[in-house]
Task: structure prediction
Amino acid sequence: MNRKDFLASIVPLTSASTVFANDKKPEENYVSKKIPPYLKKGDLIGITCPSGHISAEEIQPAVIKMNEWGFKVCIDDTVGAMDFTFAGTDDQRAKGLQQMLDNPEIKTIMLGRGGYGAIRIIDKIDFTKFEKKPKWIIGFSDATVFHCHINHNFGIATLHSKMCNSFPDDFSQATPTQIDSIDSIRQCLVGEKMKYVRELNECNRYGDAIGPLVGGNLSIIQMLDGSISDLHTEGKILFIEDVDEYPYKIDGMLWNLKRSKKLDRLKGLIVGEFRMKPDDPGEVFGLNLYEMVMEKVKEYHYPVCFDFPIGHVKENYALKCGMRHKLSVTEAGTVLKCL
Result:
């Protein structure tokens, strides 16, 4: 598909989409306030960029795939905008997200990419209409700002997953696990029961846990510490991932989790992909990731699993933040199931 045809296929932001009645029973209304409605064919997904910039051409593979799933797509003015590293000014990015949160026709919001910038606008956003009529917010990395803020303040489920810039240009060249991880977004959005199985890592600590799943990018979680967007972890299963940080930086952030008591009363800990920078010459840190983590949690007894397929890698599976999960870590491997 060429650029002209692609741009013509995108539904304008003001276009109407099919509105489906809420078919939930009255006694289920409380749950629907915490879990956004699942999507149906013809529902509208909005794309906005509250952080780094991305072009219309770069989001094309994601738009095509979501159309194949049966959804309509609209984009706002932040797609293609640029203000240095950002997708427009702070006010422009906040306006784009606000309009999509407030537009009742848009059922889900997928972020164009991560980068940096969400923390600069989070306090500009009015979540009043979103709280009354929740919709799925999709993204990872810098999107951790939204996952943590929404979980802390509203208890509404969000979707930690790939964004537009993570869709391959040519699906025929993608690996099976890459394709499978992208399809996990669709599965989550339509309400399929999610279950992930991971092979044994010898550094795992065995056990079972049930609780709400929360987490995201470790650097962002630390950035939000002590703020109105701070992540509360007591009684929850925490997952973490990060990229392009030195080992000593990761160690320091893990110490911050421990010293702020975010590790004290967990139900379980999931460690995703960590692609760390190599130590500078003469500055070898000396501990690997497994040793760093286990040093911080050795006094606790909850299950811990490593190398879970989430993070800045092709195999980045969708997780429903805020929803109850069961984590089982055994000699046979790890199973994470959404309840």
